[in-house]
Amino acid sequence: MCVAAPTITLSFWVTVILRQTPTWTLFLKQQTYIFYSPFFEHQSSEATMTGTEPFAKQQQQQHTSVNGDVCSEAAVEDVFDNTYKEKEGPKPPRILVWRNIILMSVLHLGAVYGLFLIPAASPPTLLWALVCFLLSALGVTAGAHRLWSHRTYKASLPLRIFLAVSNSMAFQNDIFEWARDHRVHHKYSETDADPHNASRGFFFAHVGWLLVRKHPDVIEKGRKLELSDLFADKVVMFQRRHYKLSVLLMCFFVPMFVPWYFWGESLWVSYFVPTLLRYALVLNASWLVNSAAHMWGNRPYDKNINPRENIFVTFSAIGEGFHNYHHTFPYDYATSEYGWKLNLTTCFIDFMCFLGLAKDCKRVSREVVLSRLQRTGDGSHRSG
Ligand SMILES: [Zn+2]
Ligand SMILES: [Zn+2]
């Protein structure tokens, strides 16, 4: 019983991922998945860094040199495009994707069951679940988001490999698709072309967008994005080629087998707590950036956009809840003007810089922040 049950449930995921590849691929591709989107639009780094106000249009960000040895120059299309207009007339019909609905339901039922198993888990297993949570989250925040979507700093090859492996543990679609979708989110925020358009309500922005067919404009705009920097990154492309295998290994097998093999935890607890529960928690923490941080909170930097400063999201998504700041200054590697405060991801990147594995972190100057606060803020800014 102890071995059979997790084996059966695990085999469900294996079947879905490996044996039904066409449909599963459809799931990933059509849902443009994953979560997270949080973070903002990019402005011209040159202009903003030197004191010129960033604004909607000027924002074709040119990053000189990306990711260490990869790409000497790349344009990051993550700046809001105010020239886009939603098509008039009736919206396309909402088409449910039942496979995704079932998979998400099964995952969350398993996660809820995992909650009840927490008292049965040994302390090392709970600590391991926390480690897996943090690794998964960093693979998204420091990796797919701040490095690959926004190019806010440069990372050495070892760090990029580490972040790619961690990203597979988070299973939020491969880095390439995640970054593409995130750039579309910044460029067309709160419109039909935004994958998780928050103007369609909390549920849609949180998870609903993964359960229905994409709006045609999301697909169209995503195809037109400039993504040469991602194509040129061998780590990104390698992860994409071997994504299904890496997810099976990092998101399911490793979290489950480590507690069982090293300290004798039952496979049952290992499967439901550090694996399914941890996976669902990271997903929801990421989704909250798209939902809660686009609806609730202050807008001290730009009251004209939806993204907000949300402390709860900042805490759960290890530093990604300063969302009004992030959408206003998307090229800032810290996604906040407050440095390490509630921002584990920034601590991690700084530590990588200390070790010599990362460098060239982009920041917004104090004077630019102050200028922006006065010009477009809602007056709620606090200085610390
Ligand atoms: Zn956002
Ligand atoms: Zn972002």
Automatic annotation (TrEMBL):
<dbReference type="GO" id="GO:0005506">
    <property type="term" value="F:iron ion binding"/>
</dbReference>
<feature type="transmembrane region" description="Helical">
    <location>
        <begin position="126"/>
        <end position="148"/>
    </location>
</feature>
<feature type="signal peptide">
    <location>
        <begin position="1"/>
        <end position="19"/>
    </location>
</feature>
<feature type="transmembrane region" description="Helical">
    <location>
        <begin position="101"/>
        <end position="120"/>
    </location>
</feature>
<keyword id="KW-0443">Lipid metabolism</keyword>
<dbReference type="GO" id="GO:0005789">
    <property type="term" value="C:endoplasmic reticulum membrane"/>
</dbReference>
<keyword id="KW-0256">Endoplasmic reticulum</keyword>
<feature type="domain" description="Fatty acid desaturase">
    <location>
        <begin position="127"/>
        <end position="331"/>
    </location>
</feature>
<keyword id="KW-0732">Signal</keyword>
<keyword id="KW-0408">Iron</keyword>
<protein>
    <recommendedName>
        <fullName>stearoyl-CoA 9-desaturase</fullName>
        <ecNumber>1.14.19.1</ecNumber>
    </recommendedName>
</protein>
<keyword id="KW-0479">Metal-binding</keyword>
<keyword id="KW-0276">Fatty acid metabolism</keyword>
<feature type="transmembrane region" description="Helical">
    <location>
        <begin position="268"/>
        <end position="289"/>
    </location>
</feature>
<keyword id="KW-0472">Membrane</keyword>
<keyword id="KW-1133">Transmembrane helix</keyword>
<dbReference type="Pfam" id="PF00487">
    <property type="entry name" value="FA_desaturase"/>
</dbReference>
<dbReference type="GO" id="GO:0004768">
    <property type="term" value="F:stearoyl-CoA 9-desaturase activity"/>
</dbReference>
<dbReference type="InterPro" id="IPR009160">
    <property type="entry name" value="Acyl-CoA_deSatase_haem/ster-bd"/>
</dbReference>
<keyword id="KW-0444">Lipid biosynthesis</keyword>
<dbReference type="GO" id="GO:0006636">
    <property type="term" value="P:unsaturated fatty acid biosynthetic process"/>
</dbReference>
<feature type="transmembrane region" description="Helical">
    <location>
        <begin position="243"/>
        <end position="262"/>
    </location>
</feature>
<dbReference type="InterPro" id="IPR001522">
    <property type="entry name" value="FADS-1_CS"/>
</dbReference>
<keyword id="KW-0275">Fatty acid biosynthesis</keyword>
<dbReference type="InterPro" id="IPR005804">
    <property type="entry name" value="FA_desaturase_dom"/>
</dbReference>
<comment type="similarity">
    <text>Belongs to the fatty acid desaturase type 1 family.</text>
</comment>
<dbReference type="GO" id="GO:0032896">
    <property type="term" value="F:palmitoyl-CoA 9-desaturase activity"/>
</dbReference>
<keyword id="KW-0812">Transmembrane</keyword>
<dbReference type="GO" id="GO:1903966">
    <property type="term" value="P:monounsaturated fatty acid biosynthetic process"/>
</dbReference>
<keyword id="KW-0560">Oxidoreductase</keyword>
<dbReference type="InterPro" id="IPR015876">
    <property type="entry name" value="Acyl-CoA_DS"/>
</dbReference>
<dbReference type="GO" id="GO:0070542">
    <property type="term" value="P:response to fatty acid"/>
</dbReference>
